[in-house]
Batch of 2 targets.
Target 1
Amino acid sequence: MLKRMTLKHKRSKTLNTTQMPQGEHARGHKEDKNLRTCCVTRESLPKSELIRFALGPNGEILPDIAGKAGGRGVWVTANKHILAQAVAKNAFARTLKTQVNVPDNLVEITQTHLEKRLLGALGLAMKGGHLVTGYEKVRSAIEKEKINALIAASDGSMDGRKKITQLLRAMELEDEVPQIDFLNAEQLSLALGGKNVIHAALVGGAATKSAVDRAKQLVRFSAENTG
């Protein structure tokens, strides 16, 4: 189950979201090019707030999380409840005006894809030297104010997590450092090539923004409140 994720950033890292026109391929003004329309709500949103679903050659609809698959596609607001509505209302077939094969567990498939994409981003950050693991290394990164995002295993010791949070607060970084705390130790260990990874931190590079953006999308997808 996904837990809280703090998504406040330093001013230089603020993410902008603007709302404008419709369609899988937005038309009109140049600034509208990153907007798409949800096939359920009909609301035009930035691509970062939706998920594209692509029609495969066998007529099956599957999530295209990166939004780069070829062929025809449909955009759905990145939330499990709205995706469930798309399935129930046959929105994919209506939008594409053709028969499609929609997996019964499309919501679960989509969440798994989102988790894998986030874990992949963390793994790349690790390989690039932009992620550290272990309580002491994370503590050192906080003390040196070199931490860009904090990662804590959801099944880790509450005492250890509390101490890290208290240190962030003492350094006046709690409201500036995004916290990803809904992945378990097994997931983190497999992605980062370690054993029993409980504490980790992103410490720089483009990988930080990529990982935080993907975590934000996963939190939005699992949210109970779609408002």
Target 2
Amino acid sequence: MRSQRLLIAGVLVVALVVVLAVLLPGLSSPQPPGPGPTPTPAPTPAPVPVSGNGTYVNTTYGYAVTCPEGWFYTESGESVWFSSPDKHEEVRVNTNPLSGQGPAGAQKVLETLNATYIEDLRAGIDAEWVSTTNTSLDGVPAYESVFSVPIVEEDRYTFVIRYAVRDNVAYSVMHTVFPPEYDVYNADAAPAAESFRFL
């Protein structure tokens, strides 16, 4: 199950890169190699317990998420994922800065993200798109896309993504909904994802 979650994370990163490449020409232009040493791989970030009051605050991107007691968070670049006491990733928040999109540009980002998620999740993890609806992310116009993903045999889990653009940053808040026999802590994933709020 962990490898499938890592694959989902990879698919989502690819989706956001595609969106940025389509909407922000020039960012993906290849650069000539420069002289210098081969970079060393970055260390894998370690999970940190969420503070005593259960609220994680990201001052860089101006948001907060409230988690149940005993949960952890892991920061990696512009992504933060929240894991239950057994260290299963339950909720993820991705942020991607955009350059001067304006309201019309924000709508285009959301539409492009939606199309990219549908295509990439189908190809990457055989996810079936269930629905996309207009919603809000703490009062900001957003989309919510729901996917059904196979586990084993006939069992499936639900993958939910809410995404919005605020102050030229694309925010994606994701969580999983597993059948109860797979992960007892997963019942807390939806409330933790829904606790997302802007500061």
